[in-house]
Amino acid sequence: MRLEELLIGAARRTPDAVAALASAGDSINYRALDAHAGQVRAALEAAGVRPGDRVGLCVPKTINALGSVFGILKAGAAYVPVDYSAPAARNGFIFSDCAAAAVIAERSVAEALVAELAGGPWTWLDYPVAEGEDVDFVLLAREGARAQDVQVEELAYILYTSGSTGQPKGVMHSHKTALAFIDWVSGEFEPTAQDRFSSHAPFHFDLSILDIYVPIKHGASVVLISSEAGKQPGTLSELIEKTGITIWYSTPSILRLLMEFGKLDERDCSSLRIVNFAGEVFPVKHLRALMSTWPAPDYYNLYGPTETNVCTFYKADNPLPEDPDYSLPIGKACSGDDLLIVDPDNKPVAPGEAGELLAAGDSIMLGYWNLPDRNATAFTEIDGVRWYHTGDVVVELPSGDLKFVGRRDRMVKRRGFRVELGEIEAALHKHPSIPEAAVMAVDLGEAGLEIRAYYAWDDDAAPSLLKLKKFCSQNLPHYMAPDKFIHLPVLPKTSTDKIDYQRLKENN
Predict the structure, then answer these.
(1) N or C end of the chain, less CB within 10 A?
(2) Cis peptide leading into residue 319 (ω within 30°)
(3) What pLDDT score does 485 carry?
(4) Which residues contact 62 (CB under 8 A, 6 or more apart)?
C-alpha cells in the first residue's frame, strides 16, 4: 500500500463526496482532486521527475497544494514541504540538501528561491491549476543529468526540523512508516465518511500526516486552514461552527488561544467529537478550562517526535483529577511500536525511575537524509532490535502510562544538582496569571549557569520580582528557582506554533 492509493480508492468509492474545503470557502470533490493529482503527476514526469526523486513544495496551504502532494506521490517521488514564508536561503538550503529534482513554488517567492538553489540551471514551467481555485504556482525543474543522485526505496516524504548544528535536518519517512500511524488512528478513532478533519498544521509539520491521510483514507473531508486563518482564534471558532469539524488536531498553544479569544460561548462547536493535541506540553489549568467549555469531545494527548510519527497516546479523563500536582501523561505505546526506558548506558531503568525513552517499530523514520554520523548516534541496536533515541526523559507510572519529564538535552547541572528546565516551566504554568512560560539556561562562564524564565502575564497588575520568587519557592526546590525573570507580551512561536527558543535568546 502506498499513500496515494488512499486517494485513488476514495475517488473510486465516492467520487462526488467533498474531499477538501479551504478557509476561503472553495471545495473540491474526490473525483476532481484525484484528477488534479494526475495532472500534477503528468507535469512532473514531463519535467523529468522519476520514481525515487525528491520534489520540493513551497506554497501556501490550498486545495492545489493538497493535490500537489498526491501528484508528487503518484509520480513515485517524495515530497519535501517547507514554510513558504520562511527566508529563501533556508528553503533553498533544504531543497539543495535533498537534491530536489523539481520544486512547486508560489510564484511570488520563486525568483528569490531559485537564486538560493544549487544544482541548476532551473527551468520555469506551467503548473496545472485545479478547477475552481485561483493560485499562482510555478513548477521549477532542475536540468542536467542526475544519475548520481541518491534514491531511497519507498521514500514518501522528508520533513526538515531544526538541527543542533544550526542547519535543518531531514527526517525521512516511507509509505510504510506513515501508514503504521495512519492505520492506528483509523482503529482508535473509527472515522467515517461523514467526519470533517481540521488541517491546522502546515504541511511541513508532522501533525499534517494525520490531517491529510486519515480523512482521505475514509472518504471524509479535510478542512484546510490557511496560515493566516490559523492564527486568528475568532476565525478558527467560526470555521469549526461553519464547516462542522468533528475531529480537531493542533498544538496546545492554539487550543489555548481558541479558548481565551475565540468567543467559544458564542459559537456552536457541538460537531466536535475528538480533540487531539501534540507538539508540546498542555498545561493542566488550560486543558481543564477547555474541557469545561467543550465537555462533549474525547481528548487525546498524542506524543512522538517527527522521527516516530506518534508512538504513544493518552485518552484524558474528563474532568481531570483535582490534584494540583497532576500532569497529563503521554500514555502507552501505539502505532504498533515498542518502547524502552533506559539509563545513559542504554540499560533498562528500574520501575518508577526516570530515563530516556527509546522507540522501535513500523512508524519509526528511515533515518536522517544524508547525515550518516547523526544516524549512527540516533539509533541503538539492543538484542537485534533497532531503537530510536527520542531524547525525551520519561517515567512509567503505576498505571503503566508514561509521564513526560523533559528533554535530555534540557537537563543541566546547577550547584551539584540536576535541573530539568521543563520542570521549572511546569511550575510556572501553575500560576493563574501566567498563560505561557519558557525557561532557558545560559552559561556565563566563570559566573556559572544562569536560569532565565520568560513569561507572559494576563492580569492587570504586573508582578513584582519578589512575588515571582515567592511563588517559585512554593513550587520548586531552591536550587531550581530562576535567577532572572523576563516578561514578554507574547512568547515567540515557530511556524509550527511551538515556543521558539532561538528567538527567546534575543530577549535578555
Answers:
(1) C
(2) yes
(3) 95
(4) 22, 133, 135, 224, 226
Which residue's entry shows cell 501528484?
71
CA distance 107 to 126: 11
State how far the Cα of 397 lies from the Cα of 353, in Å rounded to an integer: 9
| Distance from the first to the final alpha carbon of the chain | 51
Q: What is the per-residue DSSP string for 149-172?
A: S---TTEEEEEEE--TTSS-EEEE
SS3 196: strand
Counts of helices then strands in the chain (DSSP H, E): 14, 27
Mean pLDDT by 10 residues, the chain (508 residues): 97 98 91 98 96 96 97 97 92 94 96 91 94 88 66 88 75 97 98 98 96 98 94 95 97 93 96 96 93 97 96 96 91 98 95 96 96 95 95 95 88 73 89 93 79 91 89 86 93 87 84
3-class DSSP assignment, residue 262: coil
Instruction: State the DSSP code for 182.
Output: H
Q: Which residue has the cell 514526469?
A: 45
Largest CA distance in the chain: 69
Cα 301-191-239 angle, rounded to 5 deg: 75
Q: Which residue has the cell 470533490?
A: 29
Contact 272, 296 (CB under 8 A): yes
Angle at 262 between CA 257 and CA 268, to 5 degrees: 135
Is the bond leading into 297 cis (omega within 30 degrees of zero)?
A: no
DSSP per residue, 332-387 = EE-TT-EEEEE-TTSPBPPTT--EEEEEESTTS--EETT-HHHHHHHEEEETTEEE
Q: Is 217 exposed, middle or buried (0-12, 13-18, 19+ CB in 10 A)?
A: buried
SS3 257: helix
Tell me the sheet residues that pair with 281.
none
- Which residues does 262 contact at the CB level (< 8 Å), separation at least 6? 233, 234, 236, 237
Q: How far is CA 86 from CA 4, 60, 92, 315, in A?
A: 28, 11, 10, 35
Q: For residues 91 and 85, what is the distance between their CA atoms, to the nearest angstrom?
A: 9
Residue 275, H or E segment: strand 274-277
Measured distance CA(159)–CA(163) in Å, rounded: 12
Comparing CA positions, the residue from 305, 317, 328 lying closest to residue 397 is: 328
Cell of 502: 532561538
Reduced to 3 DSSP states, what percent helix, strand and coil does the chain have, rounded to the nearest 5?
30, 25, 40
Residue 281 Cα distances to 201, 252, 358, 436, angstroms: 17, 7, 19, 11
